[in-house]
Design brief:
The strands form three sheets. The chain has a four-stranded antiparallel beta sheet with strand order 5-6-7-8, with no helix packed on it. It has one domain: 3-layer Sandwich (Rieske Iron-sulfur Protein), CATH 2.102.10. A hairpin with a 2-residue loop joins strand 5 and strand 6. 0% of the residues lie in helices and 42% in strands. The chain has 114 residues and is mainly β. It starts with 8 loop residues before the first strand and ends with a strand.
Length: 114
Amino acid sequence: MDATTPEQALCRLDDIPDGSAIAVDATLRDGEESVIVLRRDDAVHAYLNVCPHAGRRLDWAPGKFLLKDGLLVCAAHGASFQDSDGLCVGGPCRGEHLRAVGVRVADGIVWLDD
């Protein structure tokens, strides 16, 4: 059995307003997961929508995230993660990382590259 995931289009780059994030469902090796896709200019980063502190989702409403000054803030306990690498720089899980999900952009589409 092949352990790789099939190629998946997650969203269009234009679906993500510059400087913000959306949640998409993706089929990863571990099954169906909610994935946060963040955009800054044409750079895109993606992480599992799971806070390392308590295992809860980071969105304050389905698919709605608080982003301020390049930080993604967990709605549950206020942990703050750098949007560029998922490092927690404030809150109860300081020093931990969000789990990165590999993505790439081709022809205006964000593809799973995990």
